[in-house]
Input
Amino acid sequence: MRRFLIAGLLACSAVACSNSKPSDSSATSASLPAASASLPAASASPSAVPVEQFPAVSLEPLKADFENPIAGAALPGSDSLLIAERAGRVILVNRSDAGQVTSTETALDIEKLVGSTDAERGLLGIAVRPDGLELFLSYTSSKDGSSQLDSYKLKGDQIEPSTRKNVLSVEQPYENHNGGHIAFGPDGFLYMSLGDGGSSGDPDGNAQNREVLLGKILRLDPDAEQAVAADNPFVNTPGAQPQIWLTGVRNPWRFSFDSATGDLWVGDVGQDQTEEIDFLPASQGGGRGANLGWDIYEGTAEFEDPNPAAGASSAGPFTEPLVSYSHDEGCSVTGGVVYRGKKIPNLQGSYLYSDFCSPALRSIRLDSSQKPLEQSLGIELQSTVSFFEDSDKEVYVIGLDDGVFRLRAQP
Output
């Protein structure tokens, strides 16, 4: 999860930031071992796309009042949106065909289930089943801080509170690195990110340990026993948790699937040195069984004090990031989405993301050789915590303090 600037906390002390404890020494540079799939090489300083290739864009505020919005989702086949607030409210936003807000209402309030929003806790993720019949919420529990995934029946745009069902519960040893993003993949399964459990440097070696769910991205079948998708990569691996899709993540704060290609993009928050964007093409398995390297590597550099679990996972192979950047440019990456809307044609196919500590909104395009080309979009939003798409694939950006905005072409 990210580190939020809330209730007097410093900007990097509350949600998914790198770490509040500065490092005493620099990471040792090392080449990352080859990945099991041939992915593009990491690029600490991606080549810039000429500015004239990028459209002039702006952020149009969604005219509604939110208190610390943190995630959003569209109701399929509708202009309506659901906005999750960190404290536990889900706000239904009804819009006209032109995209203007016509009304808002509290569709669900789970503040009693969420309880504390201290450190990196709270309501963290929201997703709607593609058929529009079920809502899923990811949050930390008021009882013990554990990560919870619950479902609710949807009837049109109405959430039925009495239908709440717990899909998954995962103990959390510390208050930070909860992850908590959820999204449906192109295969119809529900994916969920979980950080490494927190503290600093993954002290329990969770990210490299297939026997635990922490430090992983999960692939879940909400209708199955223990939410296990039957064809997951480690279902038949002795000792491994069967819900795991990929391993070796520190605190994945937002991932998404390209709606046109099915490719998986992950923003994984670093420790004291490096933030990273991971690209896992659908043509190469979309991350199936991949190991993204933490805590053996931070970005492409060998981590200064690795404490991985022993066993097959820690031996690699590892998938290196597509793009990484140092803390001179930010401190806590916010992964985004690939633009597939129709209103900004020149942005088509660009991956949009940001950093909680750096307000610039950024874009990555892949050239014909899959080389990442990065460019600032020339617009800023403070404390960016999320990106999401509406039913028309137009993109919205959420600032924790400033609200929800639609990305639009400059008039």
